[in-house]
Task: structure prediction
Amino acid sequence: MARPLIGVSTYLESGARWGVWELEAALLPIGYPRLVQAAGGIAAMLPPDDPSYAAEAVARLDGLVIAGGPDVDPARYGDERSPRCGPPAPQRDAWELALIRAALATGTPLLGICRGMQLLNVALGGTLVQHLDGHVTEVGVFGRHGVKPVPGTRYGDVVPEETAVPTYHHQAVDRLGEGLHASAYAADGTVEAIELPDPAWVLGVQWHPEMGEDTRVMQALTRAAAARAR
Result:
């Protein structure tokens, strides 16, 4: 059986270094492709591009992952920038929102991770909390906290028990976008997973599964992607 092709959006960073070079680069932490591979998929990097090409790109994929990264520009959800909000990433915002909308329009299985979950919420008209305390324990170090699933949801079916997850974020979902349901919460009430109801396979998680050992969420995406490919 052919493995599903899973597209993963990338960072766009200036000053990336390798060998003797220091250049602008489209890059992706290795945890993302390794997680896709461990879950039975083939990972394809999707660096920022003209948003008008997003539908063409998604049409060639079996599934889509929107990766973590910088804060979403508050202008995307009609809010003024807080002093605690990070610098904008306009090329990523435009490209990844277009990818999300193309996936939603075509029924392509979609997983948003951290920033990706936040962008999914924004794409469907939701808003974000621009700064949240307690979900970053140390700069540059992933922490862990418990996440409790909502029974009867897609996420709750995939991971039915409360688990400790790798986390590093200071923004979160505020008002849910159209059609979205919260499917997991942290102990402080922060929404930790969101999803669309069947038949769509659309899930967002606030944590970083690529930094942990639990592959169940990515396995669920690759199963949905493989089924769609057939």
